[in-house]
Amino acid sequence: MKPIIIIGAGLSGLACAVTLSRAGKRVLLLEKRELVGGRVYTQQTPSGFLVDEGFQVLLSSYPELSHVVALKELKLKPFNSGALIFNGQSLELLANPFRHPLRSLETLKFSSASLRDKALVVKLMARVLFKRPQDRIGSPTTLEYLTDFGFSQRFIDDFWKPFLRGVYLDPTLSLGSGFFEFLMNCFAWGEVTLPAGGMNALPQAIAKQLPPDSVRLNVSVKTWEPHQVILENGETIQASAVVCAFDPKLQEKKREAFFRKAHTFYFTSPAISSLGWERWLILVPAHLGFSISHLALISSVAPGYSKHGEPLLSVTVVGEKHCSASEVIQEVEKLAGKELGLNSVATTEVPYALPIIETELQGYENQDGIWLCGDRFASPSINGALRSGRLVAEAILLVTFS
What we know:
Blueprint: E1 4-7, H1 11-22, E2 27-30, E3 42-44, E4 50-52, E5 58-59, H2 65-68, E6 76-78, E7 82-86, E8 91-95, H3 104-108, H4 115-129, H5 142-149, H6 153-168, H7 177-189, E9 192-195, H8 201-207, E10 215-216, E11 221-225, E12 228-231, E13 236-238, E14 241-244, H9 252-255, E15 259-268, E16 281-283, E17 294-297, H10 298-301, E18 313-318, H11 325-336, E19 343-355, E20 364-367, E21 370-373, H12 382-401
């Protein structure tokens, strides 16, 4: 039996391969990098730190995870539920009172939220809590949804915008509110986590389920047709179907218009441990004029990211703005209120971090006999990438083998 060839071993390609393999189909996954995962990539620095390709987290309640992996394999380490939010002078806590009841008094003092805003948060969570999670874009925009729901402009500017900017990589919150409700459902039922061994542990765990010799790494594809793939080395492979787990029509020079960008800086210093940031996500509202969007003390959440027990701080800048490490350090120290003696560990630039999606999509496409999948055909998230891979596999089984 000719294999179904999948080009690209990112999350979509892996989900597609696993779904087809479980259905008894022979698959061949081709990946140009040295390991699977695509943008979900982790490297180890010479000093022993684990550094993800940009700040990434895994929502434990993403419904697609159950189709591809047993979560216990990942040894997930949770963030605290809530955030520390910079108000221009100090950090204020907005914690989930159900997860952190002992911090409820601090949360009630959060200055940017009126009593009405706090009541509306409870109302919103009650609305999404028992909805069946549907990873859809929907309309109106998230910003319109929050405004219509009744939240004050101050609370939107000081909490919702910085919080969702870290999720969407979009300060305008133009993504559809259907996806927002889906995310809120996931936040309500699950935890924001990091795998103990880095984010690449997720694609590695998926790949382990595939038969031996079904994944080829360090392989570049030259051309492809509906039933044939030609590699750069001249090798020709016949296929029963071909899946591109990327969009071949997005040329490099035009690709930036379809994706949102992010830079993440990683630092270490003994002084970080004394700040009390612990396992909280730290948010910086855009109207304060800072370049940085959000911070996290990664080593407090997942100690395995630091081989020698040293603190590891990630700092993310969203969008087009380019900052030097020294500029970012100045902003972090202003936020901390003191000098920290930060040393740079690594910097990751992710020009294609998340796709820009403006309309509802079916999860995959077939263009001239070539199957296409990826998060840009579903939703800008890990769940969207996995869902797209599963859906295209199910379509192939229906169309090609029924």
